[in-house]
From TrEMBL:
This is Uncharacterized protein. Belongs to the acid sphingomyelinase family. Signal peptide: none annotated. It comes from Diversispora epigaea. The chain crosses the membrane at residues 6-26. Residues 358-445 form the Sphingomyelin phosphodiesterase C-terminal domain. The keyword Chloroplast does not apply. Pfam families: ASMase_C (PF19272), Metallophos (PF00149). Its main location: secreted. It is found in: Secreted.
Amino acid sequence: MLINSIFSTLIIIILGGGQMIFMNFCKSTYKSPLFPLQNYSGRFLHITDIHFDPDYIYPSSPSKFCHRKSHKNKNNNAGKFGSIQTGCDSPYTLINSTFEFLKKNFSQVDFIIYTGDSCRHGRDLKNPVVEEDILFCHQILIEWFTKYFDPKKVKIIPTFGNNDLLEHNSLEEGPNTLFSNLTQIWAPLHLNLTHNFNIGGYFRQDVNSRLSVLSLNSMYFYKENLLVPDCEKEDSPGSKQLKWIERELINAKEENRKIYISHHVPPLDSDGSPAFYEKCYEKYIQLLGDYSNIIYGHFTGHTNLDTLTFVTSTFRTFGESLKKKYNLILVTDEEKEESHSNDPVVLVLNNAPSIIPVNNPAIREYVYSTKDNNDFGVLLNYFQYFANLTEANNIGKVRWELEYMAKELYGINRLQGDDWENVLREFRKPNLELWERYKKYVYVSR
Ligand SMILES: *[C@@H]1O[C@H](CO)[C@@H](O)[C@H](O)[C@H]1NC(C)=O
Ligand SMILES: *[C@@H]1O[C@H](CO)[C@@H](O)[C@H](O)[C@H]1NC(C)=O
Ligand SMILES: *[C@@H]1O[C@H](CO)[C@@H](O)[C@H](O)[C@H]1NC(C)=O
Ligand SMILES: *[C@@H]1O[C@H](CO)[C@@H](O)[C@H](O)[C@H]1NC(C)=O
Ligand SMILES: *[C@@H]1O[C@H](CO)[C@@H](O)[C@H](O)[C@H]1NC(C)=O
Ligand SMILES: *[C@@H]1O[C@H](CO)[C@@H](O)[C@H](O)[C@H]1NC(C)=O
């Protein structure tokens, strides 16, 4: 991001001075999280969609959202660790088991990406979600993370989901009380919450001089959020965020830094239709494609599904000129026409399955290259872990196990464009075994 000229040095000094004043003013406790470059591979976790329900009781009736008992005893069949495929959220027992597993097996990771939806759903009209519930679940989440991990050693990089807002799916332009509350609640994580977070809910967190995570606010693109417009107007919150992303990508390219992007709602919803407003979607996809050579990872949650979305490139004519355009192909359990395109794959978007047992609860560990060269940040593999919830409820104990290893499953060397292109080609072959396995994992071996 830095250019060596007197001019840019001057700007940096001015900005640097300004930042110092800002930091003093805010009494920021922000400390650099940067860890030194190493010449081997590092690891990080991606966790998503915890949906903690403090009102979950056991035994109770899933048709009453696991909040109350039914007078018919046979209906009180909620599970001790959660109730798969019901309207219930996650009980404390499941979350405790998850964090115990994380602590025992993953205390050495470099950082954790958490893509939101910490709070329960507001489905139970007799027990609606109010503002205090939202602030409480944000608070307890940070208590868990800091109890089980030392944030000075393991950087925890969160965002919020559509159920983490003071009102479901609704988030107005900042500054607002959600952003100011989160700035306080997330303080123990020592994050880089600058002015951008205060106005837009997004921030950049450097892992070191070679790799940065952009934690985005997908609520400003999400078409269910009726408090913001599409990204047509220059001054809409979505457009401002897009401009910030582009600036960060340009800077990263200049500084030879790689980027991971994380946010809650993926660009395509579980049925393959855009989850974003039309213009926000188009512009965001264009950015992903145009900067796919420095975006080394893209992580989302929300759909509770374990899916791959392929970004393919194609040329379109605009008057006299040719311009690169991009398409997204979400691979689901259905055969889709567009997945038969032969366009090159420039990037793959990874959607991780959730803790909340819509399917079996799951967490993911990535391995990335820490070679001190252009490879830094390349995803080398991921390990998908899950807990068989039916078994857990039967035996009264959660057993976390490895579900699959991506590199081995797909028979690829590293998780990058060219390798993924072969996978997409494999998926297109008739009655192939790989797609069958993929389909099973989409629902976390349910
Ligand atoms: C990593 O390896 C390269 C090439 O072997 C070497 O030049 C570089 O100094 C090493 N960096 C570190 C941090 O060990
Ligand atoms: C949390 O999980 C651990 C490990 O399974 C267990 O020993 C402990 O009792 C649990 N705590 C609560 C409060 O359920
Ligand atoms: C946090 O949110 C509550 C509820 O919306 C609000 O009353 C309070 O002022 C907020 N606190 C901060 C520091 O923004
Ligand atoms: C914090 O974010 C700002 C703005 O994106 C960026 O200039 C700065 O380098 C970031 N610092 C760290 C340590 O992430
Ligand atoms: C999960 O456990 C149930 C009950 O023990 C068993 O029938 C099922 O095969 C298990 N599923 C997987 C994927 O291990
Ligand atoms: C977690 O770590 C324990 C102890 O090191 C080990 O026995 C167990 O196999 C690990 N679990 C998984 C799912 O890898």
